[in-house]
Specification:
Helix content is about 70%, strand content about 10%. It has nine helices and three strands. The protein has a three-stranded mixed β-sheet. Helix 9 links the parallel strand 2 and strand 3. The radius of gyration is 25 Å and the shape is elongated. The two termini are about 40 Å apart.
């Protein structure tokens, strides 16, 4: 599965960016009118998401730099680096600031402004975020296949899928929380409900940030290819004429589309140097035919004991 940001994937990120910028402006305006802590928290949520989409686009652009002497495997890991920065933005700019906002307003006694402004903006925001989520689901659908969405987040090598999918889902959940908080405050006259909603939004964003952080850390350290890809590589090498067995097969992604393969191949002690060379060339070709990535392959011949 190729994971290079296709035009469709870029559309998903740009769609999310456009939606979040529009929604952030509307939320800040409504928050100024109503004084709602939940709306301020949601404004910070949309602001953080907007910054994140910009970071993803910058990371994708920088990852396309060609390999050089200092970075012989290229710059594809920039996509992982910028996704890791995104996790920090979600946690600190979105989550922690929203949490602080809710806590600071918890004991406040000022009244909530006209809640109709909040309802209107949250309704518009839900429409934009739903549109963004629909675009994301259509874009990543082929990558999902038979996997669950949670499993896709765990195994994908494309950080954009992790970030945009969780952002869109979190945005809709956050809107729901803000709507509940504003409604309860309007019905009871108690601002504590609005503050609790802001705190809940902050905790939601901190949770999303931690999940993105965990997954992108794993990608930065270096993950192996998917199990089915490793099995296909092993089978392709093992079925090569002149190769009797495959030992110590290891793979590592140095980027979403860049895979390093290393293995030992067992050959007959009676095999000639020419035969061994031919077996290595054919095995590498077989591995490349089943690995849907740019590959660097190291095969070490080992004599049968």
């Amino acid at each position: 599965m190729k994971t290079t940001p296709s035009s469709e994937q870029r559309v998903a990120v740009i769609t999310a960016l456009a939606a979040n910028v529009a929604v952030a402006i509307a939320k800040f305006a409504a928050a100024a009118v109503t004084g709602s802590s939940a709306l301020i928290a949601e404004s910070l949520h949309s602001l953080a998401d907007s910054v994140n989409e910009v970071l993803l686009l910058v990371g994708a652009r920088r990852s396309r730099r060609p390999a050089d002497l200092r970075h012989p495997f290229g710059y594809a890991r920039y996509r992982y680096v910028y996704a890791f920065v995104v996790s920090l933005t979600v946690f600190w700019v979105g989550g922690v600031l929203a949490l602080i906002q809710g806590v600071s307003r918890f004991s406040g006694h000022d009244s909530l402004g006209d809640p109709r402004w909040a309802y209107a903006v949250l309704g518009i925001a839900a429409g934009f975020e739903g549109w963004s989520l629909r675009t994301t689901l259509r874009t990543v659908g082929p990558a999902k296949g038979a996997l669950t969405w949670w499993r896709l987040v765990q195994v994908t090598k494309a950080p954009e899928i992790i970030v945009v999918l969780l952002e869109d889902l979190g945005a809709l959940v956050g809107i729901g929380i803000a709507l509940i908080g504003v409604t309860l405050t309007a019905l009871t006259g108690q601002r504590e409900w609005d503050a609790i909603a802001a705190i809940a939004i902050g905790l939601l964003l901190m949770s999303i940030g931690l999940v993105v952080n965990r997954e992108t850390q794993s990608l930065l350290i270096g993950e192996s290819a998917a199990v089915e890809v490793v099995d296909a590589i092993r089978q392709a090498i093992a079925s090569t004429e002149g190769v009797e067995a495959v030992v110590d097969l290891r793979t590592i992604h140095v980027g979403p589309d860049d895979l390093v393969i290393a293995a030992g191949i067992v050959v007959s002690p009676s095999e000639t140097a020419t035969g061994i060379t031919r077996a290595i060339v054919d095995a590498e070709a077989g591995a490349r035919s089943v690995a849907p990535y740019r590959t660097v392959i190291y095969l070490e011949p080992r004599l049968r004991s």
